[in-house]
Amino acid sequence: MLLLDIAITHIAGRTRQTLVAVLGVAVGVGFSVGMAALMQGSQDDFIEQLVNTMPHVQIKDEQRTATRQPAEDVFTAAAIYGLRPTEDPRGIINPNAAVAWLTAWMPGTLSAGLRIQGVIRYSGNEVGASIIGIEPEMERKVSSIVEDFVEGDFDTLSEGGNNIVMGRRMAERLGARLGDTVRAVSSSGGTRDFRIMGLFHTGSNARDEGEAYVLLKNAQILSQRPNAVNDIRIRLADPYAAPSVARQAEARLGYRAVAWQEANEGILEALVVRNTIMYTVVAAIMLVAGFGIFNIVSTITHEKSRDIAIMKSLGFTQGDMQWLFMMEGLAIGLTGSLLGWMLGFTLTYVLSGIEFELNAAGRDMTQLPVAWSFAHYAIAAGFAVLSSAVAGYLPARKAARLHPVDIIRGAT
């Protein structure tokens, strides 16, 4: 307590310099917390969009690698390049058995359908589209699109007939409205007329401009592939269990199963790089604040050299002197961290209340996404205290080594 009292007396004696150093740490911690909250919030919001708008696991009627070729069995030196798996118009073989097996053990729900590529035409306009044949009751359990309808209703597909629901932007590009009849043309040449019974808006351009849903049997007729299913979409109770579920499904069924993490691997890697950059910037900010602490502790050490000599003459040890000046740096760092927490909380609160309309990354945003996490405060304060400790240690080490006789004689 005596050392702490002396340390407080030292830093209080240089009020202006101490205040500048404390404010430097506070601003660094505050803006670090605000930046971390904004970047983490945007990342969490983006991942949530990925998780909610796409299947957690998707099984397609394709092989991950091409089947072994006869030449490889006959010739030991055979090497084949650029070979692609052949497309099987039958889709997934025995889809009912595959669905039953998945349902028996998988911790989630699934929907089996037929995804085909084609064109939708209306009044001289046409748009390329993914036409997805579904069973509405199964699709409702795995897709969030049910909640994104702005006109009409998803349930109209269950009424039967040649009904279709599509993205609102696709309808705008076609010049069509609810109730109009459009013509769908598949890549195999099949055509069929459908009546628009619903328009959805997810905020994702890829879906709003490029997807349309029909009954599974209608998609099979349109593509001239009776009873075919080429797409099984799975939604899990725990999205982060997707890789293990995908591996098990692919090993058993033989078809390529893609977890949402694999489908967005490049994006997730970019997020890791972004987080690394963010925390590097935080460390740089704290390093700059540390120079201010180093400067003030060094000045105090120089000015109090005779006090150091007297204290060591009275019996204070070298370790006491070192700990004294380190406490001065830590006191500035801790005070600045507490003020920085208040500033960071205020910044985060203000950012969370900003409202605007923006189309970012293909989806609509109306508010800045921020994340409230104690970890942001702990990390920022940790950097601040660490830089304060280092900034205080260097001059403290020098002060502890001073010999009282040399100081009193005026050698320093």
From TrEMBL:
BP-aspect Gene Ontology terms: lipoprotein localization to outer membrane
Membrane topology: Multi-pass membrane protein
Domain MacB-like periplasmic core, chain residue ranges per copy: 18-251
Keywords: Cell membrane, Membrane, Transmembrane, Transmembrane helix
Domain of life: Bacteria
Location within or outside the cell: Cell membrane
Record-annotated membrane-spanning stretches: 20-39, 277-302, 323-351, 371-394
Gene Ontology cellular-component annotations: plasma membrane protein complex
Record domain ABC3 transporter permease C-terminal: where: 280-404
Chief location of this protein within or outside the cell: membrane
PANTHER family associated with the record: LIPOPROTEIN-RELEASING SYSTEM TRANSMEMBRANE PROTEIN LOLE (PTHR30489)
Family: Belongs to the ABC-4 integral membrane protein family. LolC/E subfamily.
Protein name: ABC transporter
